[in-house]
Amino acid sequence: MKKIQIGLLGLGTVGSGVWKILHERRALLRERAGVDLQIKKILVKHRNKKRTVSVPRRLLTDDISQILNDPEIQIVVEVMGGEGASLRAVLGAIRRGKHLITANKTLLANEGHKIFKEADRRQVSVGFEASVAGGIPIIKSIREGFVGNHIQEVYGIINGTSNYILSQMTERGASFEEVLCEAQQKGYAERNPYKDISGEDAAEKLLLLISLCYGGWFSMKNIYVEGIHRITPFDIQSAGELGFVIKLLAIAKGEDSRVQARVHPVLVPKSHPLADVSGAFNAIFLKGDAIGPAMFYGRGAGMMPTASAVVSDIVDIAKSIDCCEARITPSLHSLAVESVDKSSNEYYFRFTVFDRPGVLGQIANCLGKNRISIASVHQREQVKGGKVPILVVTHKANEKDVQKAIHEIDRLSVVAGKTMMIRMERF
Fold first, then answer.
1. What region does 2 belong to: left with phi over 0, alpha with psi -120 to 50, or beta?
2. d(C-alpha 294, C-alpha 283), whole Å
3. Residues 45-57, buried b or exposed e (16+ Cβ, 10 A)?
4. Collapsing DSSP states into helix, strand and coil, what is residue 95?
5. pLDDT given for residue 384 in this prediction
6. Contacts of 154 (CB under 8 A, 6+ apart)
7. Distance CA 341, CA 407 (A)
8. What angle (nearest 5°) sits at the alpha carbon of residue 168, between those of residues 166 and 173?
9. C-beta neighbour count of 181 within 10 angstroms
10. Which regions in the chain score pLDDT beneath 70?
11. Which of 80, 109, 255, 297 is the most buried (most CB within 10 A)?
12. pLDDT value at residue 328
């Protein structure tokens, strides 16, 4: 039986899970995969640190050269996180002809073009299943299961922290600030939660999904990103009364060699399966021209789900070594990304106005002047200071027109605060 030696970079949460699976289930993996997988060396910062898993001391090293320069190690698994040291490590492994597996979405989103180009030059594989949606096998499914499809649309709940916050706000009517504090206390949110609540984390993952779905690459700056920090319990309650729930979605739509790429809050119909994805769970809903709609659901983070995805890549690459199977690398062709200004959606608006005659007429005039048709209007009771929230739902309109209308409306003397706009999707 073919024996594959592995170098593991990092023994934190995910690295410990990888060790646990490969060590405890070695016999099972031999039976199922037909290869014998063995971790030969593990890079750590502190060899004497107390750990949650028991690892023979002889496997631990703080010298990466013991992994990079070992000719017996054919696969390097990077689970250190970060960018600087990780980039040097993965490029060092690739340049020595070693196959790479990484769970580092930030590294791939920002340096992926460089990494994949080097892998192509050295004729080695790069596996990154664990970098998107944890234990959900979405990358393998797109790359293999849907290989005969043109992926028309992708909608992803791919940040567990933001989904947990919105779910708790929906279930309890709690404020964003209150739930964020609770999420940090429970470990669902980092001490600095910016990347999660701003949508940046989801955007990094979306870039990787797009590279597989549409066969191209582009810069992170081309993705429109909007976070969840302005969502209020009032918006969530109002959405519910309209038959929707609010989710942070990563969205890609491909047509005519161009792709839309955006991350922002969305009103999702309660009848759609994405509406039921709650807590820290992830889900990806996509449409292929042959398969039709399909949805994947599961845990998007955590030690064992993420480690499971890493091990899946290890097995795939190990089986392909010394065989004629195709290498695992995405396309590096440049991909044209359509500006969000060119998209069309239905919209939910919350206008906070002073309770005066003619206010609604002024708002409707601004909307009509910018070719935005109103589907429904809902006026709420007066709040403090004589202010009234007015809810407007539109028919489909052009994003550029919507942004222009909001700019004009926010300058009206009768408007008491910045307009809240949330896009709607009908799928």
1. beta
2. 10
3. eeeeeeeeeebee
4. helix
5. 64
6. 206, 209, 210, 213, 250, 251, 252, 253, 284, 285, 286
7. 14
8. 95
9. 13
10. 256, 323-331, 382-385
11. 80
12. 61
Would you say how long the chain is, in residues?
427
Q: For residues 29 and 37, what is the distance between their CA atoms, to the nearest angstrom?
A: 8
Q: What does DSSP say about strands 244-255 and 151-157: parallel, antiparallel, or unpaired?
A: antiparallel
Contact status, residue 206 vs residue 105, Cβ threshold 8 Å: no
Q: Which of 20, 41, 98, 205 is catalytic?
A: 205
Per-residue pLDDT, 99: 96
At 57, phi and psi to the nearest 5? Answer: -60, -30
**Greatest CA separation for the chain:** 82
What pLDDT shows up at residue 383?
64
User: Residue 282 contacts by C-beta under 8 Å, 6 or more apart in sequence?
Assistant: 133, 134, 136, 156, 157, 158, 159, 160, 163, 297, 298, 299, 300, 301
Residue 50 annotated to the active site: no
What does the pLDDT read at residue 335? 84
Q: CA 95 to CA 92: how far, in whole Å?
A: 5
pLDDT at 324: 55
Tokens found for residue 357 = 């005659």
**Which SS3 state, helix, strand or coil, does residue 21 take?**
helix
CB atoms within 10 A of CB 253: 18
Does the predicted model carry a pTM greater than 0.85?
Answer: yes
pLDDT given at position 356? 87
**What is the β-pairing status of strands 397-398 and 344-354?**
antiparallel
CA distance 346 to 238: 16
Structure tokens at 112: 């992926």
Cβ-Cβ contacts under 8 Å for 309 (sequence gap 6 or more): 103, 129, 130, 134, 135, 136, 137
Sequence letter at residue 201: D
Q: Which residues pair with 42 in a beta bridge?
A: 8, 60
The pLDDT of residue 189 is: 86
d(CA 426, CA 270): 10
Q: Could you give phi then psi for residue 15, rounded to 5 degrees?
A: -60, -40
287 in Cβ contact with 186 (< 8 Å): no
